[in-house]
Amino acid sequence: MRETITTEAELREVIGSSTPVVQSKISDRLNDLTRQFVERSPFMLLATSSPDGSCDVSPRGDPAGFVHILDEETLLVPERPGNKLADSLRNVLANPHVGLLFLVPGVGDTLRVNGRAALTTDPTLLEPLAVEGKTIIPVRDNKILLTRDRAVERLLRLEAELSKDPASAARAGHLQVVARRPA
User: Fold this and answer.
1) Which residues pair with 68 in a beta bridge?
2) DSSP-assigned beta bridge partners for residue 143
3) C-alpha closest to that of 144 among 118, 110, 175, 172
4) In 3-state terms, what secondary structure has residue 89?
5) Distance between CA atoms of residues 15 and 143, nearest Å
6) pLDDT tens-place string over residues 141-170
7) Which stretches of the chain are DSSP H helices?
8) I need a surface site. Which of 38, 111, 131, 165 has the fewest CB within 10 A?
């Protein structure tokens, strides 16, 4: 690379600054609109990082509203049975900073929540979320932003195109076979 950006000042020279309208959307607590988004979302991505800086993004999903709202500052993310690698959970133990990205099918907006997580086995918190759940991840100290996401809008347009010609879509099984072929 010829020109590497190394400071925020250099970055701002390239991309500019966000507008006051965008800045006004950032909050430290849920409001009626962001609460509705969480309640309607059946899918969320949980981003964590280990002490050495290795990152992990884990998809989480269940019927809409699977992430519960304890109060305007606290979300409860249930841990569901999975592959038991526990990458996200181990990362939270070592580094509580997390990022959540909520999606609602057919909607071009995303809800981003950055906060601090912990693991708990508190039965009063687990009971309403129980589906073989053994732990729950409360997330607080939030930075919340509901925004129009151009990447999601492009995905929605692509999905509409692919629905006209489903045979043109790559299938996950096909992608796995291709990925495993020797070079």
Assistant:
1) 76
2) 114
3) 110
4) helix
5) 22
6) 677 776 777 777 777 777 777 677 666 555
7) 8-15, 20-24, 32-40, 87-94, 123-126, 150-164, 172-180
8) 165
- Note whether residue 142 is domain-resident: yes
Distance of CA 30 to the CA centre of its chain: 16
**pLDDT tens digits, 24-64:** 888 889 999 999 999 999 999 999 999 999 999 999 988 89
C-alpha separations of 67 from 39, 42, 45, 114 in Å? 7, 9, 11, 15
pTM for the complete prediction? 0.79
Token code pair at residue 158: 């692509």
Confidence at 175, pLDDT banded by 50, 70, 90: very low
Q: Is residue 159 part of a domain?
A: no
| pLDDT tens profile 109-134 | 889 999 999 888 888 887 777 765 55
CATH number of the domain that 113 lies in? Answer: 2.30.110.10
- Tell me how far CA of residue 142 lies from CA of 100, 112, 117, in angstroms: 10, 10, 10
- Domain residue limits at 100: 19-149
Number of domains in the chain: 1
Sheet strands side by side (includes 43-49)? 55-61, 43-49, 97-103, 109-117, 136-148, 74-78, 68-71
Is 106 inside a domain boundary? yes
Does residue 14 form part of some domain? no
Q: Which residues pair with 55 in a beta bridge?
A: 49
